[in-house]
Amino acid sequence: MISLPDYNAMSDADFRQTVRSFVEENYPDIPRHTLSRLHWEDVKPWYLILSKHGWICPTWQREHGGMGLTAGKHLILIEEFERYGCARVNDIGPVMLGPLLLKYGTQAQKAFFLPRILSGEHIWAQGYSEPGAGSDLAAVRCEAVLDGRDWVINGQKTWTTLGMDANWIFILVRTDKTVRKQAGISFLLVPMDAPGVTIRNIENLELEAEFCEVFFDDVRVPADHILGEVNQGWTAAKALLGHERVFIGAPRLSASAMSRLNRIALRAGVWDDPVFRDRYVALQCDVLDLTDLFEIYVDKLRGGEDIGADVAMLKIFQSELYQRISELMMEVAEEDSGLRHPPEGDRQLHAAATYLSARPTTIFGGSTEIMRNVLAKAVLDLPS
Amino acid sequence: MISLPDYNAMSDADFRQTVRSFVEENYPDIPRHTLSRLHWEDVKPWYLILSKHGWICPTWQREHGGMGLTAGKHLILIEEFERYGCARVNDIGPVMLGPLLLKYGTQAQKAFFLPRILSGEHIWAQGYSEPGAGSDLAAVRCEAVLDGRDWVINGQKTWTTLGMDANWIFILVRTDKTVRKQAGISFLLVPMDAPGVTIRNIENLELEAEFCEVFFDDVRVPADHILGEVNQGWTAAKALLGHERVFIGAPRLSASAMSRLNRIALRAGVWDDPVFRDRYVALQCDVLDLTDLFEIYVDKLRGGEDIGADVAMLKIFQSELYQRISELMMEVAEEDSGLRHPPEGDRQLHAAATYLSARPTTIFGGSTEIMRNVLAKAVLDLPS
Amino acid sequence: MSESDTEDWQENARMIVDSARAIVPADGSLSRVRKARFHGSGFDREVMRQAADLGWMLMRVEEDAGGLGLGMRETCALMEVLGGGLVPEPVLSSLMAAAVLQERLPEAVLTGEAVIVTAWQDKVGAQDWRGGASGGRLLGRKYNVPGAADADFFAVVTGGGVAVVPRGAEGLTVTSEETLDGGRTGLLTFDGVEAEFLPCERVEQVLQDARLAHSAYLLGLSERALTITLDYLRVRKQFDKPIGSFQSLQHRATEMKIRLELARAAISATARRFDTGADERTRSRDAARCKLRAGELAMLVAREAVQMHGAMGITDEADIGLFVRKAISEANLFGGPRQQRASLAALLDQEEAA
Amino acid sequence: MSESDTEDWQENARMIVDSARAIVPADGSLSRVRKARFHGSGFDREVMRQAADLGWMLMRVEEDAGGLGLGMRETCALMEVLGGGLVPEPVLSSLMAAAVLQERLPEAVLTGEAVIVTAWQDKVGAQDWRGGASGGRLLGRKYNVPGAADADFFAVVTGGGVAVVPRGAEGLTVTSEETLDGGRTGLLTFDGVEAEFLPCERVEQVLQDARLAHSAYLLGLSERALTITLDYLRVRKQFDKPIGSFQSLQHRATEMKIRLELARAAISATARRFDTGADERTRSRDAARCKLRAGELAMLVAREAVQMHGAMGITDEADIGLFVRKAISEANLFGGPRQQRASLAALLDQEEAA
User: Fold this and answer.
1) Which of A197, B53, C335, D212 has the largest CB neighbor count within 10 A?
2) What is the reported pTM?
């Protein structure tokens, strides 16, 4: 195991500098500041470098091969990675599955899976949504039946982000149809090369295959490929929310979009137009106010406080703000808003790229509509 | 009976000129272009002049003492009255009850009530809403029980516009509690001086007593003071909607608010501000587009076509537009937006007067929320 | 306003809309449109030939110039159908060329053998068109020329007159870039191209007409996108209920409907005013107002259609995506909202002075 | 940022907020506020005396000038409570006078015998304050002076220094007009009033502080109005269901909540930055940003509160109306959104240059 310094003992400023130097020294020759996700073949060098230095799983405890960062330090790491424009790696294993394994996994599961996430041998995908179970996730119908020593799985998952890059997938399956829908769900771990697993890529509006459908046709996995107890999968699936929501609501996406808007406006010759400026400063205030709100949640994370349902406010406002910025970009870009490729080959000037990349932010990870339902009930205490 | 020319035979232009001359010659020395309603004592001279000339009930057939105007001609009359700024009279009798009497009334009812509306002897109020029955009007609880030859009425009405000026009121009352709520409602005609009727004025945000509550405490009216059949009141109450909705959606309120906004902007010195102009022209387009949409409905009226539920679009957009104009006024008026009285004594410059008068337009006559529910179901065919 | 020609134009419009069914399938299929994306010129010459056969090239040519002399009401009716079908061919640009050239429209265009498009825009983000002519030659650039990738002639509009330039003219460089909807937008660069400049006094009017006609295209697009979205709201279920039963989506859907009907009313009334004689200020104002309304409508419907389709909305395979891509590709043609509001604000000055 | 004084300020703020309960009833009763409307000076001298007794007049006076030297965090905490209680007294204007005058604040003000308010604004719709001094005398006008109808002293801020002018000064005319919330706004006219001009370098800072403090007042007002509206949504029934169960109202309510929490976060972070040392550009930008956010919040909540209360919302008897009237009376004080955005746009130029 790699021996790492105690990052949490560093001052924030020192740690920030450490991360900055690390990134500058180690980031490989792959794209930076991409708006869309890179595939495994392109981002693999960065994953392996992070892996080699013990930096691939920042939040795992050190005894499990992680960096053991506090939430505050983790945020600094994210900020510096974003500042440099580091591509996002296939991080479902490090971010989603790892913590669940640590909490619910058996000793054997931990011993088998954790090192393989750390090394990059296992690249995981998340199989939650189905054609009939999106916002209403608990309506999953993909089912698993115990047949001797195997689970036999039949059904379909969809919107599986970068599923085509993964060699393992964790899925929510129905294992009891006779109970309340949340109570009959289990959490299975499935190798993508198991007989009966097929995938079909789905192109998104950016014409990239970022997600896929995964079909399970009499797929068999050993009975011990279950995480947690039978019919307790819903609890595990829900356990991850909370801390991550704060990061989703961070003002970074909007702030970087503002700097692109600035450049697009300069190119379009409207930077000095008072009408444009009036709208620009209003958006700028939105970003700054969001930053102040975000800091409140970061302080809570730093202080080890639990994050309540109210964090949905961050996600709603951030994603809608990002979209509003992208919409002003489109207006400012005028006829160039319709170009498929960046003007002058400069991605910063490509209004449509931001516009399209902003669309899923109000849909995935809890749609704005679902988030508002949650806020209305859990925070505003309005009746059903 | 007064002998009137056949106005419908005139060209639109000739009729418009006729109305314009009539107003200029006959309008009494009472306020014009008021944003709030006048009370009976102030508007009475105008009512009596209209009455004397046979112009008080423009839509009633001529044999009943009306002008017998077609919808198209009626619209011209309304436009010219508004153009001159004629105060609105207490018109519940002419506009609401009259047509209902003509459709559902007995010969005796018509003979008794119609002439008294025409003469101004009876001033009517409408008693529909109750504290628990606003948007959900069919939930009326004010009840009437037949006791011998009398209806005995107990309960309360509220939001009765200019009820304090009326000497008669028509009310929806519950006469059968055992059936579907719409099926147990009757329509009674009640003199305000009947023992047991008390009223309490309600001041509105403009600090004027424009409406009141009316309480019924063992109020007795003869059994024949019912309009239509027992338990058929809901049908009568609903019968009036349709044509009137077109007039509610007319762009006049918004157009006149724009001219006030123009003056307020000039006074505030922002008329040349490009940021203001950008918002001003956007609102101006809204008014012009609304005018084009309104004309489509006017053409339907002229052609005698039925008006469908889609007319709610006019009301929603008009009332929200009027409010948006008033909100820009408030912004432009800066610190003066908070003044109770008009700056320089000029009501045209009083942003808050428009702001406040615009508030009820999205609430009364079918709230925007109810109108959108109706549109979603009846026009967009969306499921319940 | 004169309504004496009411029945005439309605009958004409009906015939033209019917004829468009040869190009826009009555069953709403978008398979041709989908297949044509992202390769070749972005449009089908065969469809342009059909359009010529159907007489569309003569619609905006006056009767005494040998045309059909049809009005903007008929033109908008046609454009609305083309928008609903997301037709990628440069029909409007060809009609503009015909309107500018009148009896001087090349014969090969009328027979459908050749395709002509209009090149007018001097720069991105402005509605200027007077550049390009210098000393009897064409110089400089013309932006956003639809169909440029495979057109045979360009009607090049300049302050010095209009020039019909064949594709192969010496000194003319034609380049084009892919657009998000899978088509291409052209850039013409003139390096002293010899040309005959024909006098033309109606350029500004043709541009106003085009702005209105393009608004009708966006209206058709938006209406179909709303219809598809409403269909989805009726059938897609979550929490055991159709999502169209959720009040917040219902209320947002009614807002789209209201904006759509405002656009329809404005476009239809403006087309009538254009056909029955409107003064220059009214033409200028109403063309801008229609374009503002229709452009914002298309962007609103695009945004809400994606959101209401949820994850389906951000796939390329769902047809709604074709509407979204077309909306964001074309909403700003003939001037985005910024330009329209600026020109309306300029008219405000005239009103004050008047 | 230094957080060493975290506990200090929190304890101070708690004490001040507690002390405000003498003026703002803990049970939320608005009967005093309602009764005070539309007669007299629009405020209660007794309450101003209480405020002085509670030491508020010394809050913004430095410790070496004999004051408490409290920060903007404590001030905003107080203003938020006053806003929630719709307190009509000119507390902020008095605190401004104290901040400007420091050790020169009249003794009678400290004891609560006399009321002082600040007169700074040169014209409606602008944040200019340098006018008024000419040749050692006061000339011209000062607008929007709160409490002018019954104040004893005016701290008149000019480019030539600040002058403490007693109400009865020769050449001073005090008039006041009713405001929609039932208070009065004052206009001072100086016809060559003799005055001693005390030097003062902190006017712009005090105005930034006031802009922030007034934002906190609007925040308190908005929060209470939202609370009342949510209560109404929970109990008011239509169609046999509480109207708060209707999704479209729920979603709009969440939007108010989000805007409210943004305002709270911005005001709280700005107050901390002000207290821990922010440069001039940050101060200027953040004061404008808080005022923009809070002003728009108050107007949003006012609009939605009326609509969600239905007919009750347009009566004067429902308490929500008091909030609506106060919101529209005060949202534009210290500059409406137009002014704030304009000053933010001006800062944009500095950023570019920087």
Assistant:
1) D212
2) 0.95
A180 to chain C: which residues are within 8 Å by CB? none
Q: Which residues of D touch C (CB under 8 A)?
A: 246-248, 250-251
Segments making up each domain of chain A, as ranges: 7-89, 124-231, 240-379
Contacts of C339 in chain A (CB under 8 A): 334
Q: Is C4 on the interface with B (CB under 8 A)?
A: no
| Closest CB to D257 among A281, A295, A375 | A375
Residue C132 and residue C346: Cα distance in Å, rounded? 25
Residues 332-351 of D with CB under 8 A from A: 341-342, 344-345, 348
How far is CA C127 from each of CA C91, C216, D178, rounded to the nearest angstrom? 20, 19, 50
Looking at the domain A240-379, which fold is it?
Answer: Butyryl-CoA Dehydrogenase, subunit A; domain 3 (1.20.140)
Cα distance between residue A370 and residue D251, in whole Å: 10
Helices (runs of H) and strands (runs of E) counted in chain B? 12, 7
CB pairs under 8 A between B and D: 122
Quick check: A209 and A164 in contact, CB under 8 A? Answer: yes
Question: Domains (ranges, CATH) in chain D?
Answer: 3-194 (2.40.110.10), 203-353 (1.20.140.10)
Q: Are B124-231 and B240-379 equal in CATH topology?
A: no
Which residues 6+ apart lie within 8 Å of D194 measured at CB? D136, D137, D138, D169, D170, D171
| 8 Å CB contact of D338 and B367 | no
**Tens digits of pLDDT across chain A (384 residues):** 678 999 999 999 999 999 999 999 999 999 998 888 899 999 999 999 999 999 999 999 999 999 999 888 998 999 899 989 999 999 999 999 999 999 999 999 999 999 999 999 999 999 999 998 988 889 999 999 999 999 999 999 999 999 999 999 999 999 999 999 999 999 999 999 999 999 999 999 989 999 999 999 999 999 999 999 999 999 888 776 666 677 889 998 999 999 999 999 999 999 999 999 999 999 999 999 999 999 999 888 878 888 899 999 999 999 999 999 999 999 999 999 999 999 999 989 999 999 999 999 999 888 999 999 999 999 999 999
C1 touches chain B (CB under 8 A): no
- Residue C83 makes CB contacts below 8 A (sequence gap 6+) with C216, C217, C218, C219, C220, C221, C222, C224
Q: Answer whether CATH 2.40.110.10 is correct for domain B124-231.
A: yes
Among chain B residues, CA nearest to A275: B275
Q: What residues in D contact A384, CB-CB < 8 Å?
A: 245
Q: Catalytic site residue A244?
A: yes
B278 vs A273: CB contact, 8 Å cut-off?
A: no
Cross-chain Cβ contact B275/A278 below 8 Å: yes
CA angle D302, D306, D309 (to 5 degrees): 135
Residue in this structure with the two tokens 């969809």, named with its chain if needed: A158
